[in-house]
Design a protein that fits this description.
Methane Monooxygenase Hydroxylase, Chain G, domain 1; single chain; six-stranded mixed sheet; Rossmann fold; five-stranded mixed sheet; 342 residues; Ubiquitin-like (UB roll); alpha/beta; 11 helices
Length: 342
């Protein structure tokens, strides 16, 4: 008579292969999803630093975020940092062949958005323009510059989303990408415990690049608890050096004020043209630097106007200066309507 198989061995033989892996991280197990396991497999087969970075970013995004995965999160961030340093070394080794990313100026002015990782620059660009930069909860999402046009009343201002400025990693072409902008705005997350250190590092970096300091300090993520109070503390420290505004790219709070502050920081004036005996064209303004004269405005409309201009008449939307005769040396103010006589 044959002996029956042992129960334990039968159970082992019939046990199905697991579909997801579990790790004990502290007291809480981490259920690793198929997306995470796929990204982990891609990381194991990665050949270049760029492939490693892409796979690690996917791993971080797919990893469940709770106390039980804190060690795994820290390990992925450490490996990300190492891969980025490796990528930066390879870029420096072939710096002569590295591409320079330049965004052509468009609109009334170009503003470069600077900031540390996860400050919300990309989300701000999404909220203010029609551009669609990648937004994720892991750092260093932005890899190349991306531009979008932000409307302010009847003008368009170009915002350029750039990779973060960080001690961990910076593309070697960052300085070249920042320099062409008319000005920069520094975007911070007031709830980040390291915000002051990041702030000072960015200011030192811009100084080393011989790039002007930011013209605006923007506290983002105003929708988060405590952000308003934290940004007020930053404002108390730096408000004397930088115009400040607080915004939320999620709720839209403060975005209109940011657009207005951006226009003011560009030091621009708008004027509108009017042909004699006809109503003014108020659809699209001409834009000049503040301090420009009526003669400059005439040349801006038509190069022959400046040479043959006799005088101009000034009008205002409020009808406060209807038909006032002005000379070519008069400074143009924002909102002027000018009728040129040649």
């Amino acid at each position: 008579m044959l002996a029956a198989p042992k129960a334990g061995k039968r159970r082992l033989a019939l046990q199905p292969a697991p579909q997801a892996r579990y790790y004990a991280c502290g007291a809480v197990p981490a259920n690793l999803t198929p997306d995470y396991l796929s990204a982990e497999q891609a990381y194991r087969h990665a050949q270049t630093p760029q492939e490693k970075i892409a796979a690690l970013e996917r791993m971080y995004a797919a990893l469940p975020k709770h106390k039980g995965t804190e060690k795994m999160q820290a390990d992925i961030k450490r490996r990300l940092s190492e891969a980025r340093r490796e990528s930066q070394r390879s870029h420096k080794a072939g710096a002569h062949a590295a591409p320079v990313y330049l965004i052509k100026r468009e609109g009334a002015g170009q503003i470069a958005l600077l900031g540390p990782p996860n400050s919300g620059k990309s989300q701000l660009v999404r909220a203010l323009t029609r551009a669609l930069p990648e937004v994720a909860d892991y750092p260093f999402t932005t890899r190349i510059p991306l531009a979008g046009m932000m409307p302010f009343e009847d003008v368009q201002i170009q915002l350029v989303d750039l990779p973060p400025i960080s001690q961990e990693f910076m593309p070697p072409w960052m300085a070249q990408a920042v320099r062409p902008a008319h000005l920069s705005a520094l975007v911070i997350d007031p709830n980040d415990a390291g915000v002051l250190g990041d702030f000072e590092f960015i200011l030192r970096t811009l100084e080393e690049w011989h790039v002007p300091s930011p013209a605006l300090l923007v506290g983002n993520k105003l929708d988060l608890p405590g952000a308003g109070e934290n940004f007020q503390a930053v404002r108390d420290l730096y408000g004397g050096r930088f115009p400040c505004c607080a915004v939320s790219a999620v709720t839209g709070a403060g975005l209109a004020e940011f657009a207005r502050a951006s226009f003011a920081a560009l030091h621009l004036v708008r004027f509108y043209s009017k042909a004699p005996g006809k109503p003014p064209d108020l659809e699209v303004p001409y834009v000049l630097k503040r301090g420009s004269t009526v003669g400059d405005a005439a040349a801006h409309v038509h190069r022959d106007f400046a040479q043959h201009l006799k005088y101009a008449r000034l009008f205002r939307k409020s009808h406060g200066h209807d038909g006032l005769m002005v000379e070519r040396t008069r400074l143009v103010e924002d909102g002027d309507i000018l009728e040129f006589h040649v």
